[in-house]
Amino acid sequence: MSEDVLETINQLSVHHLGNKNNDEDIFITKAPIDLGDVQLQELLLKFFLTPFGTHEFYNFTFSNQDFKLNPLYIYATQIFDGINDFHLNTINIAKHLYEVSNHPLIKAGDLFIAHFSNLFIDNETVDGVGIFKSENRQSFIKINQNKNAFDLKYEDGINIEKLDKGCLILNTEKEAGYKVCIVDKSNKGGEAQFWRDSFLMLRSRNDEYHQTKDFLNIAKNYVTKQMAEDFEVNKTDQIDILNRSMEYFKNHDNFEKEMFEQEVFQQLEIIESFRKYDEIYREDNDILLADSFEISNQAVKKQAKVFKSILKLDKNFHIYIHGNKEMIEQGVESDGRKYYKIYYKNEA
To answer: What confidence score (pLDDT) does residue 240 get?
Structure first.
């Protein structure tokens, strides 16, 4: 996260939260952690900051869209502005998280709240408030050397290579609800939504990353779900269009919706079908998208992982289709068996 600056943890408080829904208690500490040990601070910086390699940022929001009413926005502002005692603000944050931890599958854990200085993120150096939750303890073997032997003991602790949940609230773009990035390793199931939606209450930041990500999601969902309902298409046709969609974003610096439609969908009836789906999808999912924007290479790389170009045939074969669909031919034998015929020039 840094570039020629010294990231520092100015203050740190730790509390323990149970699951309120399961009648588990909250344990509030009386004072911040002593950070006088330089090695401890280095380990904590690694634990807290290493997982944040994403370029995906959010802003605070609230149920009525007034982010200034968001509790985390209020507490972060008080920390940045030196209003109230830092530890008191961390207590309020811990209590807020405890109150919203009402899904039965949310795990108990240790909550770390830190005030940073000199965070270099997205090409600017800023202060930040970090909120991190560790939910999974692990056993570690400790070796003690005596005169003629070793003693082995085990202790339970936190693996600094594995942060379960985290967020960084950056002291920039205050007028838009601050710039926030998050980590959530528990990203499956209903309990996963509480960190972003119930606790932090975030909305996607209106930037090129989210513009790119959102439009690629719309295109992917149209091709894989709606297109087969409107037209007679096979899997190879769908994969070919998905490949063209991704190639457009890889080969252009700026997105132009009309140009994308012409290059990817090509046929007027498909373009019209996509436009109807696009309009409904944006309205249903409350997405605001411009018809032209700068393409985010980071978002393209991330989305490429979910644009599947794999043709799965029963449990026997997987065919990876990366280019010219004219090189693969589909048919049916006289006895009803289906087949694909594949043409190629070189064998690797």
So the answer is: 85
pLDDT category, 137, cuts 50, 70, 90?
A: confident
User: Which residue, 284, 297, 159, is CA-closest to 221?
Assistant: 284
User: 10 Å Cβ neighbour count for 225?
Assistant: 10
The C-alpha atoms of residue 308 and residue 299 are separated, in whole angstroms, by 16
Q: Is the separation of the CB atoms in 275 and 267 below 8 Å? A: no
What is the distance between the alpha carbons of residues 8 and 44, in angstroms, rounded to a whole number? 10
Contact 22, 102 (CB under 8 A): no
pLDDT at 136 (0 to 100)? 86
pTM: 0.80
CA 288 to CA 282: how far, in whole Å?
A: 7
User: How many CB atoms within 10 Å of residue 119?
Assistant: 23
Mean pLDDT in the chain? 87
If one counts every other C-beta atom within 10 angstroms of the C-beta of residue 260, the result is: 21
The answer on pLDDT for 116 being more than 90 is yes
- Average pLDDT of 80-88? 93
Percentage of the residues of the chain whose pLDDT score is greater than 70: 87
SS3 category, 189:
coil
Tokens of 18: 């149970």
Between the alpha carbon of residue 314 and those of residues 43, 234, 317, 331, 339, the distances in Å are 48, 16, 7, 16, 11
pLDDT of residue 2: 46
What whole-number distance in Å separates Cα of residue 26 and Cα of residue 204?
31
| 242, two tokens | 């998905």
DSSP string for 34-77: P---HHHHHHHHHHHHTT------EEE--TTS-GGG-HHHHHHH
Rg, C-alpha atoms of the chain: 25
